[in-house]
Write a structure and sequence with these properties.
alpha+beta, Ubiquitin-like (UB roll), Fumarate Reductase Iron-sulfur Protein, Chain B, domain 2, 4 domains, four-stranded parallel β-sheet, 18 strands, about 30% helix, binds iron/sulfur cluster
């Protein structure tokens, strides 16, 4: 299927824009902007280093031809001569490997089975040896990184198919863990019920997108959007759930009273080990002592939110990851940005990598780790499609209440940085606010 679409750069970029493709790895950066750049290497990120999740693996197994076509199209658009499919060591996808054996411009690269292998800074270093400057992006070193789910959507986009669904892992402490595909705007509660996994929120907690980087979802009406790749259910007693459930005030109070400045959070921080000027123990000290002008706080701008410092290493069960995130938002609101500065990998890095197995054990989720089968579900009778499910500004609605729409129709257009939004089911537009609500006829 590769190269069946003889597209020019502008044609590829336009089709990706028209289809509303955004990064499926979490941030939702509009893919047409990445495609409109120049690079030497495109990496298909299939590292999927978060525990329990199997969405990327399913995409590669079920749609490897489309993913490779998406990779090829991104290479065409960016002028890249090399395409790499990045897998964690120990992963094997025989059909993909057989397919790549006959493609000289494409290769598989295996990166250490550690967390967070999928972080762009870590991935680019492990896959190519190139070091992205701190606060920089892969393009600074001639690389574009795209999640395999994104590349599937790129392939679909050039064939005229907009993004209307999301492949999601439904996993954790539930009877029927699986991978499924749901229309964008479907509620989390519907997905759980449709897959045979009713959840009582008094006993269990839901994490969206990841055990380590995900956030707690207390609302079953919350909708799945283009960025959400997993619905993970864990007992309320799980240590990650307890930590992520704490209020900001409690986190700060605890930081002030029990942070012993052992520095373990800094010693293990993947960005610190890449040579970036971030030291989470100093951020904790500055927040605890209310030192608002501290240079140490600026390190928070370099935090990836990987969660290692909080969910994995802190002996006092503190949350430097969440505190860093809070500080980062505060600085961003004041317009403070980090500047891209060349960095050098610290010599101790190789000894401080955290194996996947250790993450499973420490977070207490290893007992839920298993292969997941695909389970199709019927579409819901109602979807609430967010107008902001990407980096940038919300899309402006392009439909009116009462209008009939078909799956794939344009319903939102960005007025600045952003991505188009499309109807994910056939039906009537019932409401428009931050969401476009569509009810099937
Ligand atoms: S690991 Fe925990 S206790 Fe140690 S410095 Fe970091 S936040 Fe403080
Ligand atoms: S979450 Fe913690 S370990 Fe991860 S990058 Fe941020 S400070 Fe470092």
């Amino acid at each position: 299927m590769i190269a069946t679409f003889p597209a020019s750069k502008s044609e590829i970029v336009n089709r990706i824009y028209e289809a509303g493709v955004v990064g499926a790895g979490g941030a939702g950066f509009p893919t047409h902007i990445k495609a409109d750049s120049r690079a030497e290497i495109v990496i298909a990120n299939a590292c999927e280093c978060e525990p329990l999740i199997r969405s990327d693996r399913f995409v590669l197994e079920a749609f490897h031809e489309e993913v490779l076509e998406g990779l090829h199209l991104m290479m065409l658009a960016t002028g890249s001569s090399k395409g790499l499919v990045a897998l964690r060591e120990g992963s094997s996808i025989p059909d993909l490997e057989k397919r790549l054996a006959s493609s000289p411009a494409l290769d598989i690269v295996r990166v250490p089975n550690t967390y967070p292998a999928g972080d762009e800074h870590i991935l680019v270093y492990e896959a190519t040896g190139r070091i992205i400057p701190q606060a920089g992006i892969p393009l600074d070193v001639g690389v574009v990184v795209s999640n395999v789910n994104t590349l599937l959507n790129v392939s679909r986009a050039v064939h005229g198919r907009p993004v209307t669904s999301r492949i999601v892992s439904v996993c954790g402490d539930i009877p029927k863990p699986c991978v499924t595909e749901v229309p964008i705007g479907t509620s989390v509660g519907f997905v759980l019920e449709a897959t045979g996994n009713q959840v009582d929120l008094k006993e269990k907690a839901i994490l969206l997108s990841g055990v380590m980087m995900g956030e707690i979802c207390e609302d079953l009406t919350r909708t799945v959007d283009k960025r959400i790749g997993a619905i993970i259910v864990l007992p309320r007693s799980n240590r990650v759930v307890i930590s992520k459930s704490l209020s900001v005030e409690t986190m700060v109070r605890r930081a002030a009273s029990v942070c012993c400045q052992c520095q373990l959070c800094t010693e293990i921080c993947p960005r610190h080990l890449m040579g970036h000027a971030i030291s989470p123990h100093k951020i904790m000290r500055a927040v605890a002592w209310m030192i608002t002008s501290s240079e140490d706080l600026a390190g928070a701008l370099l935090c990836s939110g990987c969660g290692l410092c909080g969910s994995y290493v802190c002996p006092m069960a503190l949350s430097p990851d969440r505190i860093s995130y809070m500080v980062r938002r505060m600085l961003a609101e004041r317009g403070i940005r980090a500047e891209a500065v060349p960095s050098e990998v610290r010599p101790l890095r190789a000894w401080r990598l955290v194996p996947h197995e250790r993450i499973l054990n420490r977070t207490g989720v290893g007992i839920y780790e298993r292969d997941l089968n695909f389970v199709p579900i019927s579409p819901p009778g109602l979807v609430r499609i967010p107008l902001l499910q990407h980096s940038g500004v919300p899309a402006s609605p392009k439909v009116a209440i009462g209008r009939h729409v078909s799956k794939g129709d344009l319903i939102g257009e960005p007025q600045g940085l952003g991505a188009r939004v499309h109807a994910s089911i056939d039906g009537i537009v019932k409401a428009i606010d931050d969401f476009v609500t569509i009810e099937s006829k």
